[in-house]
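Annex B. Sample input.
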Amino acid sequence: MDVSEESAKKIAALQVKLDKKLGPEYISQRPGPGGGPKLTYAEGWKIINLANEVFGFNGWSSSVVNITTDFIDFDEESRRFNVGVTAIVRVTLRDGAFHEDVGYGLLENSKSKGAALDKCKKEAVTDAVKRTLRNFGNLLGNCLYDKSYTQEVIKIKVPPVRLPPIS
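Annex B, continued. Sample output.
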């Protein structure tokens, strides 16, 4: 299949955007598991907003390929639930190009089984969307896997990103 010159230019321009790295305003940190080193990540809504900017709000879509409840454990002593859910998501661009990846949701010590399942499913899908979008390039989160980059970018202080008010 031959790509027209116009299409080739659009693809090249898109690639230039995707090769850029996330600015510090998109990056957050939280404590690592068990008090380990801090984890550097981008919040789901920020990555989705970026995908809308890069591809256009109608230039991409996501679909859940599979969602699996890995476990629902009930602790008789504490009367609480521990839940884990895995999701596989596909992100498809307007031209048909796509990637798939996996995400995970986990909640421990929940009073409600339903609330735990709800939170875990949403968390797993959001995580999978973020992990899938990163396959398209640095701008959509792949740069966060470059430890030398994250060590430097977290030193830059910026005000938090605020969504504009809806009028």
